[in-house]
Amino acid sequence: MYEIVISTTRHVTPPVRRLARELSYALWSAKRVNRGGSSFSELILRARSLGARRLIIVGRGLHGNPGRIVFFDIGGTQTRPLLLLRLRGVAFPEKLRSIRRPSARILVVSVGRCSEESEGIAEDIAYAVNSSYLGCLDEKDLKTFREARVLVVEHVLEEHLAYVLKFIDNSQEIGLKILVKSTKVYY
């Protein structure tokens, strides 16, 4: 049984498939499912048959690069969208399949410019990945998480970049960075 199922939109490119695969390794209790020719409703049925409560769809953007990530709540009788992340880019780990699956549920924290807005987005991301949000921390406080994987939401002040999502394991970055241009919350 898995809590999260990750798949892609139709007509994807290798970078989109790789992001879906790397996310399935970075998140706790996540399984990547090959969509193939399945419709969205068939994908939801397949995810529910695996016991999942969340469905994450990685979509294509400009020039075939990953362009968006959409989070859905499929735990109840109805499927409802939770969060949309519009991406500016992705930085993958240098080695393929270098990310090991975490042994326990990941934690979500925010760093950088801590405002009500940035903490709200970090809470929304934590809810979307079915995890706990611990609050706003300093960069040096991240070294205290030795046994847990942490998803860090960093608020950035650049023109076409709002947030950087990065994963920390044993006080070290694991290499996957997701550059978020904008977000949309549905609930």
UniProtKB/TrEMBL annotation:
Residues 2-187 form the Brix domain. InterPro entries: Brix (IPR007109). GO terms for molecular function: rRNA binding. SUPFAM superfamilies: Class II aaRS ABD-related. GO terms for biological process: rRNA processing. This is Brix domain-containing protein. It comes from Thermofilum pendens.
